[in-house]
Amino acid sequence: MTDKLKTQGKFTYAEAGEGPVVIVLHGLMGALSNFEDTFSYFSTNGYKVLIPELPLYTLPLLKTNVKNLATFLKEFMEFKELDSAILLGNSLGGHIGLYYTKHYPEKVRALVLTGSSGLYENAMGDSFPKRGNYAYMEEKTRNVFYDPNTASKELVDEVFRIVNDRNSAIRTLAIAKSAIRHNMSKDLPEMSQPTCLVWGKQDTVTPPEVAIDFHKLLPDSELFWIDKCGHAAMMEKPEEFNSIVDNWLTERKFK
Known about the structure:
By secondary structure, this protein is of the alpha/beta class. The protein contains 9 helices and 8 strands.
């Protein structure tokens, strides 16, 4: 997906299509390429899709948190002169979308959350990431998916690189701790935006009960399950994921 990226000022992002604006927010160890199928599908089916590269590893350490990542989203939307958008986020990306929605509700037309953090997540299990141990990181990465073969060697290599780079590893832990601090359970009942929840039935990072809690707490939400699917539905079951989201947006008259 690197061939689709453009850099303007401090923002690097992919952009394509025309129509209602969808901003895609990637996760903590999720590259923009994780959304390649989603980007391609929606940008050729009546939507304008933007995927900004979040500054997970370039912010000052003390500012590496959910709050400042939401501020970055605000600055990006201002830079693109967008009055409002549909926010689509996976994992940490969903959490950033929720935090942004809390503070700028008038800027958010709808939310699409898949495997979102914000209530609970089990990103690293009970163990600290073992630097230098490729086999361990390969196992951890593959366990994110129902079908471990979904995790390409390129993805495993990227996760291994992040964990073994001191700067990235420190910021990964800082963001993970920030995500725990910024629990959204008390805020969700105040969010009236239409919300589409798409969850893998076999998600072990944000398990099914998390999706059920999101559904209970968000006043205008619908929950859709994808079977034989883990934490990243848009990667593991892209056709089903895209179909669910497109149908929901159409039914809700966003298209």
